Amino acid sequence: MAAVVGAMLLCNLVAAQQYCIPPQGSICESDKIMNVNFAGINNASGCSSTGYTDYTDLPAGQVVAQETYTISVTPEFGLTTVGVWIDYNHDKSFSANEFTDLGASNEPATLTATLTIPEDAILGSTRMRVKCQLLVAVSPGSSCSLPAWDNGETEDYAIMISGATAGNQDFSREKFAVYPNPAADSITIIAPHGKDVREVTVFNLSGQLVLAANNSTTLDVKDLAPGIYFVNILTKDGSSAIRFIKS
């Protein structure tokens, strides 16, 4: 019995760590997303048979805390409404305060809006969700539900959030360093005096986690493919991100 309960708890924990997937049943006869353009993402697409597509394997959109960006979404038809969420706090949930409304157009047109990455956004890889539906405005609490009239589409994308530049905030990436950079075998995190590093995670340009270490400032990177990576550093005061090159 204890083993069964333990397995159930483990399954619940794993489930709690995953993003919700909109239920199957949506159709795209009158509404589908033809293109999403944001922070380096420029994806032209159609629609899956379920009305939901996970594009997080594409290269991640690159954004910086406190900076403002334009997002553009092109539905196939008019009378389509569009909403976007970015999981700024990395809790695997799309909250109302993470929502941006792109509105609607009577005629087929690209819908645009500006959004500012919050100063307190957790740095590193996270997820953006884009949703369109027929006639009815996309509501902030509808990220996991079927589109109105079961007619519309939902798409997910990876987003990489980096720290603000020095001078914009006290806890900035300029106060940390990675040595050596470029690196072939290992890297060491050099932290300011009094900053205890609790966790270090490394992401590739697609937003995929490739390395992680707790309570350590040295990471073995010799098995990483050559290229550009982001090192996310977590302390009790916040997080910061630094770019490094694997030679």
Entry summary:
This protein has 247 residues and is mainly beta. Helix content is 6%, strand content 44%.
Features:
single chain, 247 residues, mainly beta, Immunoglobulin-like, 6-stranded mixed sheet, 4-stranded antiparallel sheet, 1 helix, 6% helix, elongated, disordered N terminus
Structure explained in plain terms:
With 247 residues, this protein is mostly beta strands. The protein folds into two domains: 20-162, Immunoglobulin-like (Sandwich), CATH 2.60.40; 173-246, Immunoglobulin-like, CATH 2.60.40.1930. It has one helix and 17 strands. A hairpin with a 6-residue loop joins strand 11 and strand 12.
Break the fold down into its secondary structure elements and pairings.
Layout: H1 2-16, E1 33-38, E2 41-44, E3 52-54, E4 61-64, E5 68-75, E6 80-86, E7 99-105, E8 111-116, E9 124-134, E10 152-162, E11 177-179, E12 186-190, E13 199-204, E14 209-214, E15 218-220, E16 227-235, E17 238-246
Parallel strand pairs: 3-10, 4-10
Antiparallel strand pairs: 1-2, 1-5, 5-8, 6-7, 6-9, 9-10, 11-12, 12-15, 13-14, 13-16, 16-17
Counted by DSSP, the helix tally is: 1
Number of strands: 17
CATH fold label of the largest domain: Immunoglobulin-like
Query: What top-tier CATH class of the largest domain fits best?
Result: Mainly Beta
Order of helices and strands: HEEEEEEEEEEEEEEEEE
Percent range of helical residues:
under 10%
- CATH architecture label of the largest domain: Sandwich
Distance between the termini: 51 Å
Structural class: mainly beta
Mean pLDDT across the residues is 83
Poorly predicted spans: 1-16, 165-174
Radius of gyration: 20 Å
Sum up the overall morphology in one term. Answer: elongated
CATH superfamily of the largest domain: Immunoglobulins
| Major sheet | 6 strands, mixed
Quote the beta fraction.
35-45%
Our count of domains comes out at 2
